[in-house]
Give the backbone structure.
Amino acid sequence: MRLIALTCIVMVAFAANSILGRWAIGPGHMDATGFGLLRLASGAGMLWLLCLWQGQRPAEGWRRSLAGGAALTLYMVGFSVAYVALDAGLGALVLFGVVQVSMFAWSLLHRQPVSALQLCGAALALLGLAYVVWPGGTVQAPLWAVLTMAAGGLGWGIYSLIGRGARAPLPATAVNFALASLMILPAVWIWGGGSVVTPFGCLLAVISGAVTSGLGYALWYRVLPQIPAPVAATVQLSVPVIAILAGALILGEALSLRLMIGTLAVLGGIAVVILCPPARRARVA
């Protein structure tokens, strides 16, 4: 029950990031990459303060830390830039759909047990995702924004897989945020980061960085080693549902029939993956 409760808290934090990013960038309170930079810097500051308070030190090798920082940067840039053109729910569907693909692919490549029913559940979720993002109807999904968000999803999938081996979740996340704060600077320069800055946009970026990102990601790194990669991938697809409802309530975004049907398919796929037992490894004679 404790693990379930912690996982639920992480999913709510992820959904809050979707809302905060859309709230700041969409109405023009802050530009995308400037928001991402302040979000990372705020998260790094909060995490390092917690490390000092608890007396924790980094325990990861420099290669793992650099890989984590690079993956986090890819996610942050893709996430922030794409939300200029995608609503909160649709953006989250694209993001976590790609996360699911990347983490399932990693499990299959490393021959981790995955049952045929779990693969069917993943396929069902992806079909629901494809139905939502396919152009047409009332759903607006510019191709460049979908591809950019997909790149962010790949970055997050890699970041999550790296986190499965974290020996000290809190300092590992602190190092990742500090490195990503530097790695994102070229993207800030390319996309003109800092051109739009308002007090309200900065407030949203700091909340997203220090609370829902910094603390949420550290908690995610704590949870990840305790759950299989396929389950870690699919449980994240609950985030779009939370983001869709919150987007409708907070941002006034419409709930289209197409989006709802796709969401139901995604949720059905999640249920299959979680409830079906994984395939057992074949015994070596």
